[in-house]
Amino acid sequence: MADMLNVEQLKAKAETLIKSISGDKDLLASFAKDPVGTLEKKLGVDLPDEQINQLIKMIKEKIGEAGTKSILDKIKGFFGK
Predict the structure, then answer these.
(1) 26 in helix, strand or coil?
(2) Is residue 31 part of a domain?
(3) Which end is more exposed in the chain, N or C (fewer Cβ atoms within 10 Å of the end residue's Cβ)?
């Protein structure tokens, strides 16, 4: 069963994840490629889809959608895709 977080807990998780993801290029690349899988693995908690999607949105807004896309484009270019 999925755990539910209140708004404050969700914001706190988002801030922690933003720091982790923005400070680690491999984690940022993983987040850009598979945000749901990356967050579930990083959190170690099964959140409801609504909350995981809200976290993804918060992180992308803070880091910047362009930042996650540019990392993914670089990775694809490296592998010739």
Answers:
(1) helix
(2) yes
(3) N
